[in-house]
Amino acid sequence: MSILFNGTEDMEDIKEIYERMEANCPDPWSNSQPLWNLRHERGIVPHSRNSETMLEKAVAMLAKNGHMPGWYNQCPVASGINDSRKDRRRAVDLVHLSESADRARLVELKVKWRRSNNPPSALRQILRYGAAYIFCRVHREKLPLQRRLLMDVRHVSLEVVAPRDFYNRYDGKRHLEWMRKSLDEFAGSKTVQDIGISSISLDALAFPAEFQIPFKNGGEVKQKCDTDKLTDEGQQVCDAFNNLTPAWPAS
Q1: Number of Cβ within a 10 Å radius of residue 223
Q2: Are strands 199-206 and 245-246 parallel, antiparallel or unpaired?
Q3: Is 34 helix (H, G, I), strand (E, B) or coil?
Q4: C-alpha to C-alpha distance for 123 and 106, rounded to whole angstroms
Q5: How far is CA 151 from its chain centroid?
Q6: Beta partners for 91?
Q7: DSSP letter at 4?
Q8: pLDDT tens across 2-13, in order?
Q9: What is the pLDDT of residue 86?
Q10: Where residue 117 falls among pLDDT bands split at 50, 70, 90?
Q11: How far apart (Å, rounded) are the C-alpha atoms in residues 117 and 113?
């Protein structure tokens, strides 16, 4: 069990999550250089058929080859905080940094619905990563974060991105609105304003209905996306991320 995240698993109020993190780690330290470092982690097992892994790695490969500028993956959110062995695998699936470097999207990527992998749990997950981000910015001088581009953005978007089918089993509109309200209140607090963040938002976004992951395995992902030429399959991934829409449109 992580030190920073202890007791936050079922929380849905970002202020409460943040305060629990402060109580868990009142004097944080870490020597972990990957902490909040932007990177392209492209390694994938050729026979892998995990849908989320294939899509995430496709984005990383396309970005590395110049087809999806500003996108990164597997960004560590709490690596080594107060224990050099802790939280090295806890990471934001995808990050997008704007060209002006003043806006960042932190993305929890989902593909298949399961009892333990559903819209409410995904929203809680990205909210907790958002709290960890704020915690790390507050304690930036105590952590190896002085040269991290992500630590200087003014606008932060916390997002769950998934196929529309992922959301269809759960009417999460009211749930999302409640979590947004708590986030809006926290975004206006002195804690957030003092670290230079102007806005924080929370969204549940869906791929176009016609989008299907165009790979059968990790080998195909590498063949179709880890190349200078933008293939048809790579274009499909680019288009899917460029045409996201709200999972539960406003009435």
Answers
A1: 14
A2: antiparallel
A3: coil
A4: 12
A5: 15
A6: 76
A7: T
A8: 689 999 999 999
A9: 62
A10: confident
A11: 6
Q: Where does residue 53 rank: exposed (0-12), middle (13-18), buried (19+ CB within 10 A)?
A: middle
DSSP H or E segment with residue 205: strand 199-206
Q: What's residue 214's pLDDT?
A: 97
| Residue extents of the structural domains in the chain | 14-246
Helices 173-187 and 14-24 cross at an angle (nearest 10°) of: 60
pLDDT given at position 147: 87
8 three-class SS: coil
- Chain-centroid distance of CA 38 in Å reads 12
| Tokens (6 digits) for 156 | 């932060």
CB atoms within 10 A of CB 123: 23
Is the pLDDT reported for residue 251 higher than 60?
no
Task: Collect all residues with Cβ–Cβ distance below 8 Å to 190 and sequence separation of at least 6.
Answer: none
pLDDT at 87 over 80: no
Which residue from 75, 62, 102, 80 is spatially nearest to 25, judged by alpha carbons? 80
The 71-76 sheet, strands edge to edge: 71-76, 91-97, 103-109, 155-162, 199-206, 245-246
> What's the CA gap between 193 and 126, in Å, rounded?
20
pLDDT digits (tens, 9 = 90+) for 131-190: 999 999 999 999 999 889 999 999 999 999 999 999 987 777 888 999 999 999 999 999
Q: What is the pLDDT of residues 28-71, one digit of tens each?
A: 999 889 999 999 999 999 999 999 999 999 999 999 999 999 99
